Amino acid sequence: MSRREELLDQVTDYVLEHGLIGLTLRPVAAAIGTSDRMLLYHFESRDDLVTAVVTRSNDRAVASIRALEPADGVRAGVNELWRRYQIEPLHSCLDVYVQAAATRLIGVEPYLSAVRAANERWYAGLCDYFVACGAPHGAVRRVVTLVDSSLFGFHLDLATDRPEELAQGVDDLAAAAEALAGA
C-alpha cells in the first residue's frame, strides 16, 4: 500500500470517528502522527483530501452492502438494510455523506464528479443486494430509488427520533418496496 493510501485510510478513520464538519489539516495531521505539509504533499489541497475521504468512506459503505447476506425477500431486505444503517460501519459512513451534503460540498466541483461516481457504486451495490433478495431485474432500480432515498431520510431522523419509533415506518417502506418489486 502506498503512503498516500495509508494516510487516506488514517484520515478516513479519523473522520468516521470525529466527523467531517470543521475538518482542518493541522489537527487531523497531528491526530494521525504526520504533518499538514505531508498531507498536502500527498493530496495537493484540503479539497482533494476531503474528496478522497468522502469517496473512501463511500467505498467502505459499498463493501459493507456487498458483504450482506441476501434476506428472504425484498421486505426483509429493506428491514435488514435499515438495521445495518444503525450500526458500524454503515452508520458512520452515511453520516460522512450527510455531513458532506450539509456543508454543500457534494453539489460543486471538485466534489461533484467524485460523489456522482461514488453514488453510482453505492446504487449498484444496492441493486445487486435487492436482486439477491428477490427483486426482479426489471423493478430493482425503482425499488432501490424508493428505498435509498427513504432510508436516508430515516437515517437523518435518527438524530431526534428513537430507532424503535422509526421501525414501523421502515417496515411500511419495506412493504411498499416489496409491492413495487412484485408489480
Question: Nutshell version of this structure?
Answer:
About 75% of the residues lie in helices and about 0% in strands. It is mainly alpha-helical and about 180 residues long.
Sequence-ordered SSE layout with sheet pairings:
Layout: H1 3-18, H2 25-32, H3 36-43, H4 46-66, H5 74-85, H6 90-102, H7 111-132, H8 137-157, H9 163-182
Helix pairs in contact: 1-2, 1-4, 4-6, 4-7, 5-9, 7-8, 8-9
Describe the structure.
By secondary structure, the chain is mainly α. The protein has one domain. 77% of the residues lie in helices and 0% in strands. The chain has helices spanning 3-18, 25-32, 36-43, 46-66, 74-85, 90-102, 111-132, 137-157, 163-182. The longest helix is centred in the middle third of the chain and has 22 residues, at 111-132. The protein is elongated and about 55 Å long. The mean pLDDT is 94.
Specify the biggest β-sheet. Answer: none
Beta-strand fraction estimate = under 5%
Helix percent band: over 70%
- The residue ranges in which pLDDT falls below 50 over 5 or more consecutive positions are none
Oligomer state of the chains in this structure? single chain
User: How far apart are the first and last residues' alpha carbons, in Å?
Assistant: 47 Å
The whole-number mean of residue pLDDT values reads 94
Treating each run of at least 4 consecutive H or I residues as one helix, how many helices? 9
- The gyration radius over C-alpha positions equals 18 Å
Bulk shape: elongated
The number of distinct structural domains comes to 1
H/E topology pattern: HHHHHHHHH
Q: Could you say which structural class the secondary elements and strand pairing correspond to?
A: mainly alpha
Strand tally: 0
